[in-house]
Amino acid sequence: MEIAAKILNGDVYAASMLMRAVEDEKQFALEELGLLYSHTGKAFVIGFTGPPGVGKSTLIDSMVGAFRKKEMTVGVVAVDPTSPFTGGAVLGDRVRMQEHAMDRGVFIRSMASRGWRGGLSKSTISMIHILDAMGKDIILVETVGTGQSEVEITKVSDTSVLVLSPDSGDQVQVIKAGILEAADVFAINKADKEGADYVVSRVEFMLGMRKFKPEEWKPEIVLTEAVLKKGADELADVLLRHKEYLKTSGEMDRRRRIRAREELLKNVESFVRDFCYQGFVVEQYMEDLVEGMAQRNIDPHSATLKIIDWLSAHFKQISSH
Amino acid sequence: MEIAAKILNGDVYAASMLMRAVEDEKQFALEELGLLYSHTGKAFVIGFTGPPGVGKSTLIDSMVGAFRKKEMTVGVVAVDPTSPFTGGAVLGDRVRMQEHAMDRGVFIRSMASRGWRGGLSKSTISMIHILDAMGKDIILVETVGTGQSEVEITKVSDTSVLVLSPDSGDQVQVIKAGILEAADVFAINKADKEGADYVVSRVEFMLGMRKFKPEEWKPEIVLTEAVLKKGADELADVLLRHKEYLKTSGEMDRRRRIRAREELLKNVESFVRDFCYQGFVVEQYMEDLVEGMAQRNIDPHSATLKIIDWLSAHFKQISSH
Questions:
Q1: Confidence of residue B114 (pLDDT cuts 50, 70, 90)
Q2: Domains detected in chain B
Q3: Residue in A41, A144, A304 nearest the CB of B271
Q4: ipTM of the complex
Q5: Contact map slice: A 183-242 vs B, CB within 8 A
Q6: How many Cβ contacts (< 8 angstroms) between chains A and B?
Q7: Across the interface, which of A119, A176, A253 has its CB nearest the CB of B81?
Q8: CA B21 to CA A143: how far, in whole Å?
Q9: How far apart are CA A10 and CA A3, in angstroms?
Q10: Do B300 and A37 make contact, defined as CB atoms within 8 angstroms?
Q11: Is the pLDDT reported for residue B217 higher than 80?
């Protein structure tokens, strides 16, 4: 039986194996993913982002519990920023999630995301597809760090949660990065700590400056204390309410179309990049162009056009495989 | 006279204009950059990265002063993480750098980096080329935030400085992200504050775990107090020493070849992506594929191969322009 068929039959080992193959960029993974694709699109995908130290992992852990109480199955994708130099993954507080390890309704995947080639999105999207095809009702995606990946999470999830806490440092720097406009829900974690009120009022102020149409979703703020699992049920309710909003407003379809377009473009870019690397090895053609650039004998734009010529001559035979 | 020729003649307005055109992704900018390229490769490019709030901008400001004392000309590229939703840039503490605004030996460019298409590298590299062609001896590049951009800075600079401070939050989270292995120099800023010793000992401990060959550069740690301009001269000396190391060891050539390769691949990806977007508009072909994906009638891999076919049929005519 093919891996895809096994996964659709509920085989978690087959799912783990395919996830591994996706990370290792095995060719057969693409084909198996292709077979799974028509069985996806059912899960509700929720992205969690926020600065380091706000307690995202612990919050996601308590959200798993909250959704399980509602008898929903849950998948988790945790994206670790990995050293691109050593290739090693750091586990850290992911270990705490072991609590759910024996629950058949939960599947947790921590990603190495080696070298960050293609950024957050490409293999994260594949992991989401696999969990979706496995029939998980809810998929929680965690990204770490501020900056690009925070915004990118809006490209892989239906709903985006920005997690903040009183001790997460200079919040303004985070809010700068554009995630403020992207967040559908704000979780103010460690809400028992001093300064939580300030963070809430700050977010309220920022939201107050934006204009919302009456029919539009106005981002909600939920106070949580993840370690004590406080606020998790309320956050789950808000998230499910947002899901209903997405469906009835047509926003879900709009977001998913944007995601399909992004996924397609990422795949094309990745195909072209892999193809170029192949060219480096097989023909030395690009290596010669790189050398020419380093010697200032050719400029990057001219070199790019030469490669486009080379690509168009070589694409045909490859894409016909 | 062409823009490129004006820039080579020292016209700063022409340089500003070309930088603007690069950000706006104007087609003529590529051609002008092509003309400048053979005049680049002379500047020493130093990247500064580190978590928000450590005082990178202030430190770079004092480094401008330190290099000017040595009668070197300086260019600065400050990369702002901009809201990809509003397209607006936040200036913040960049204003403080006004001190050097009247100095003809200094050119400062704060980048909006709209939408982060292509991440840090693509337009940042172009800005560096322009400053390089302008004849700047030193180019300082600032990136904000933790995560991907911190590692990417090693792809645009000769030397990488990781800026830390006693109050920059959980340093371990930063060090996770792989920049530890990439940094050539550590600047511990706000060195007068409590906890600076701890940060230093932490970095020393981390460095102590790595093996360095005798001929290899062992990252140096410099204490700075940017507001008081303390440590800036020492940091400048360390950086120039690292430059000598890069040159004599052959490491400079190696790094620059890696950068040329990255730039070429980024350009190719960008060309392909632009081309695909054109396809969206002109032929509706890709939009139909996206719709097919959203409806689960075609999987992403099959759609990708269809686009590769389409690209190879259309590339020829475009690249011959």
A1: very low
A2: 1-36 (no CATH), 40-249 (3.40.50.300), 263-319 (no CATH)
A3: A304
A4: 0.73
A5: none
A6: 241
A7: A176
A8: 33
A9: 11
A10: yes
A11: yes
